[in-house]
Amino acid sequence: MLSVYDVRIEYQKNPIGIDVTKPRVSWKIQAEGRNVRQGMYHLQVATEDSFDTVVWDSGEVSSDESLHISLDGLNPISKTRYYVRVRVADQHGNETDWSETTYFEMGLMQPKEWQAKWISTPESMDKKPSPQFKVAFEAKGKVKKARIYATALGLYELHLNGERVGEDYFTPGWTSYHTRLQYQTYDVTRQLVEGNNEWTALLGNGWYRGNLGWENQKEIYGNRLGLLAELHVEYEDGKTEVIVTDESWQVTESAIRESELYHGETVDAQFVSDNWQAVDILSESKYKLVAQENELVRKIHSLSAKELIRTPNGEIVIDFGQNMVGWVEFDIEGKPGQTVEIKHAEILDGDGNFYTANLRTAKQTNQYILSGEGKETFAPRFSFQGFRYVQLIGFEEDQLQLDNFHGMVLHSDMEMTGDFKSSDDMINQLQHNIVWGLKGNFLDVPTDCPQRDERLGWTGDAQMFIRTASYLANVAPFFTKWLRDVEADQREDGSVPFVVPNVLSQIDDPESDDDHNSFGSAAWGDAAVINPWTLYIAYGDKRILQEQYDSMKAWVSYIKAQGDNPYLWNTGFHFGDWLALDSKPDSYVGATDRAYIATAFFAYSTSIVKKTAEILGKEEDYQYYAELEDNIVNAFQDEYVTPSGNLAVPTQTAHVLALMFDLVDTQAKSRVVKELDKLLQETDYHLTTGFVGTPYLNHVLTENGLNDAAYTLLFQKDYPSWLYQITKGATTIWEHWDGIKEDGSFWSTDMNSFNHYAYGAIGDWLYRKVAGIELDEEVPAFKQFTIQPHIGEGLDWVEATYESMYGEIKSAWRKTEAGGMELEVIVPVNTTAQVKLLGAKIENVKENNTPLSQASGILSFADPGDSIDILIGSGTYRFTY
């Protein structure tokens, strides 16, 4: 049986309100048997789900392509819904039926189509309370279709007839507001009633007007909140109507008396205002409006309260058992005017008391003043917290039932795609911590941390973790949106800011009293190159390379223009191997020479731009960047490699980068590998790497014959190690290897996050090397891939699955009692895989108990000596050896 399933448009299922002028369609195929490949596809687009009016028809196309098929020539019309269906045939001519119909709906594609006006509060109105807006209108007949298109300066929440519109939070999201502002589209057909209706809205400061950064910065983008919204109604009789934000709206203060992302929200349930005033009209531009690009933030999980704790200091604390991001929703009954507070913290101190010093100035406190009218429920609207523990203040004893408190986990609603399990509980907890690091920090932008007065889109952290993230979740829409802001905030000289969206004008140099510009650090700015490349190889998204190509080139040109040597980057400020353990006392920067790191990344980014130019068919650019890369590598070797083949920089990170970025020739490479092993021996196989070296460390070891050393690092439980954090109770990845020291004391309070995903980049090695699921850059998106588990001491079995763009990939290996191995592999339809069985001999290998040479589904095999390399098509395979 052959069938098409999971048809998507721009990665999404049935999206509405998009503005992509050439939408792309992708699908997956199910089939019985093995070695099934697509030989033909037929794609149709219609304006009715009956397909009586087909407006775009590919015809039968002989092709095995099933990803990102562009609807060239469709010319979609604003506010129009298009229906899509696909049928395919395999390489033998067996055809499917038409797929289930899916659809996409266009939003307002041109700024000039907006009829609404920007509305705001009168300038005399108090800025602290969240304003609420309203308008009454009449629906003049039975409603057939209704859509709201909305955005805000600040954050917004809409209601129709008292019911919340949509399931999304923190809309319109955080972009480079000066140049890009997203709007959202909502289907509100069900919420409208014939006759009288009321449309209301709440606004919050959010990223637009609220506090951002650690120096009490606020109103970075503007000092006036604003709302822009349109309700488009189509009646059964064919008539249409548009209700817009304009002078007919009114505004007053709401019960949300104060709201800040860092500090929390105060709600007075007794507050009622009848002082409705006329709105002000703002002259804000509509030409920066773009449709929603990534997944919206939603409630994803609800965690139950685990334990009520009374601390030695007498605090009443609830433990949710998991460091999470979102908020606490609670039910309460009490007297009018009773005030309760919830403070949020990640950890308890060594004595078991509530600990908030690492939050710096972020208050992370929600306050609720009861109305006294029976059971009441509180949850913030425009603030989120990072926490595991909450302190309850002002609650009576009978209000402390654990069932009344729920931890609501919020993050961008990405499709989770990866799962990794093993025979070791601590490794499984490490994987859990990596996943929850992603959940906590992928809230519309990739933040460094979700709790203190920061929560910024640090570019370095994002590029260090994106490859791991691409296994855990489909992050293509998430990072596509963020990369557009990278380009928007990139300077004309090509320099890339430290954080995106960029809100840092100046930041204190951690090594001096001087200020430096918040642009242009090696390994941080390289996100402009590394991230789009990762999206391309992981998802086959050539369009992201086309979109970001100018930005990628500009970054490399910026580097080349620094200093007097165009092939060595030895000028400017760099974070270096941030938080490495070989740093000098009281320094955040590791011992690896910063110019060494900068030049290494210069070579790496240039190599990526070279490959991108080749993919995009830009031959002259390809030749230019190929020559530039050669010159950089030669200059690097002249500067940092001795005539005997040793590196002049004697750190773990220096050796890791040289090997990972292929910066040393064959003769020197063996010396560098031996020296790296020696450096590890000197630390009794403990890492000293920081943000720059850690993501690549275990990869380099495994790829250079030191897989046992990589496993030793993985299983270390004392400081410093990944598992050390778990021995201290971590449920997410920490910013510092010793956020909690061995004696129970803390690292410095000025920078000690317990939810910081950068060191979670070890997850990439778990999927790619331990489980062995590795893509092929030459044929991206796992169209062709390798299953090559690297087995080591400490694990008896591993099972990993990854939901690729083609379907599920699985690699599950298990050691047998007889000293052999079993390996189960799943290969999706329309893909092929190389299975490499390390340490196997052909005569010892069976596939489903059949000798290898007779096994079905084997396309070819060879005997390279101590391993077997097998090419297989789609299907499920079980090898024993």
From TrEMBL:
Q: Does the keyword Isomerase apply?
A: no
**Alpha-L-rhamnosidase six-hairpin glycosidase domain boundaries:** 416-770
Reported EC number(s) for this entry are 3.2.1.40
- Asked whether the UniProt record includes Hydrolase among its keywords, one would answer yes
Which GO molecular function terms does the record list? alpha-L-rhamnosidase activity
Q: Please give the catalytic activity noted in the UniProt record.
A: Hydrolysis of terminal non-reducing alpha-L-rhamnose residues in alpha-L-rhamnosides
Can you give the residue ranges of the Alpha-L-rhamnosidase concanavalin-like domain? 310-411
Keyword set for this entry? Glycosidase, Hydrolase
Q: Where would I find the Alpha-L-rhamnosidase C-terminal domain in this sequence? A: 774-848
Top-level taxonomic group:
Bacteria
Pfam family for this entry, one: Bac_rhamnosid_N
Q: Any idea what this protein is called?
A: alpha-L-rhamnosidase
Source organism (scientific name): Gracilibacillus halotolerans
Q: What is the lineage of its organism?
A: Bacteria, Bacillati, Bacillota, Bacilli, Bacillales
